[in-house]
Amino acid sequence: MNELPGETEDGEYILEVSGLNVTFHTHRGDIRASQNVSFKIPEGEICVLVGETGSGKSVIGQAILHLLPSSAGVSGNIRYLGKEILSLREKDFSRLRGKEISLIPQNPSGSLDPLMKCKTQISEVMEYVRKIPKDRRDSETMSILAELGFPDPGTVAESYPHELSGGMRQRVATGIAMAAKPRFMVADEPTKGLDYAARKSTIDLFLHLKEDHHDSILMITHDLELAQTVGDTVGVLYSGEIVEFGRCVDVFSDPKHPYTKGLIAALPKNGMNAMPGMCPGLTDLPKGCYFYDRCPEQCEPGETIHPDLDLSVYYDPTENRGRCVRCHMS
Ligand SMILES: Nc1ncnc2c1ncn2[C@@H]1O[C@H](COP(=O)(O)OP(=O)(O)OP(=O)(O)O)[C@@H](O)[C@H]1O
Ligand code: NI
């Protein structure tokens, strides 16, 4: 059967990003935070974007949710269920935000209302977004809290955010996003700043959303273990560009780009061999391969010629491994 990897039955993707460019104009020059970024997410899959700090992961999530500052230069296309949304005016996009497309925020402490009980914050979303009648809101709130893996949902429901740990707040924030029953969620660094136990329960929660709910999620993270555990596909970002894209099982077992290889070698379980060097400044990118200075291969074309990423390879049904790599050597 000639089915494209990851394509939905009707041939539609929940999200298609194509040729996304995001530039911030600053007094230091133009910061090219996102350059020609393209990828697609089939309905029911989790796509993870990984990369070092400043590689341009969050700006992609912000572009999808129309949360970039108006001063940012943005071009390209973002289609949600086939419909272009990047160019929508705020008035039209606000019909989707929080309802169809929801954000699981990076810092839940900042997004939860300190003066409201957790159950009220979840049931408010049901009331305003889904117009659920009052008598059904309480039971649905409790079932969401149970879904989130709280052993004692009743106590959490009656708690204020400051009474909960960081990991519990992260789960409540996820519950608020879920209460709208969005078709697509963006989760930005859900494990950031969490201790070991909280991080583990957050990983379990996303695994549950993946395996039991088949939720469609774009996840942005530094956390390669989270990516490997919950992701269907992974895009590796370097200096605002995708350098490798493929199925998680393939990329993590057999990375092709030297940067991806370096990220994986730097994991604690692989001996923590940190990659030497730093990524180039986004205001002054080199002409050739952006990874050239740090690359163990330092191939000759890489010095002067910028490598392409042929995404069609990934979506080409004849390419059974489905992988694309921005490297002259592959
Ligand atoms: N509002 C802004 N104004 C100017 N520059 C910005 C703005 N937002 C992001 N940037 C710059 O764009 C680049 C990409 O930022 P982004 O937040 O997407 O990185 P990231 O990969 O998510 O990093 P982290 O892992 O630290 O969250 C960085 O150089 C950042 O400084
Ligand atoms: Ni970020």
TrEMBL record:
It is a peripheral membrane protein. Keywords: ATP-binding, Cell membrane, Ion transport, Membrane, Nucleotide-binding, Translocase, Transport. It catalyses: Ni(2+)(out) + ATP + H2O = Ni(2+)(in) + ADP + phosphate + H(+). PROSITE patterns: ABC_TRANSPORTER_2. Coiled coil: none annotated. GO terms for molecular function: ABC-type nickel transporter activity; ATP binding; ATP hydrolysis activity. It is found in: Cell membrane. Residues 17-264 form the ABC transporter domain. It comes from the Archaea. Gene3D superfamilies: P-loop containing nucleotide triphosphate hydrolases. Pfam families: ABC_tran, oligo_HPY. GO terms for cellular component: plasma membrane. GO terms for biological process: peptide transport. Its EC number is 7.2.2.11. PANTHER family: NICKEL ABC TRANSPORTER, ATP-BINDING PROTEIN, OLIGOPEPTIDE TRANSPORT ATP-BINDING PROTEIN APPD. The complex is composed of two ATP-binding proteins (NikD and NikE), two transmembrane proteins (NikB and NikC) and a solute-binding protein (NikA). This is Nickel import system ATP-binding protein NikD.
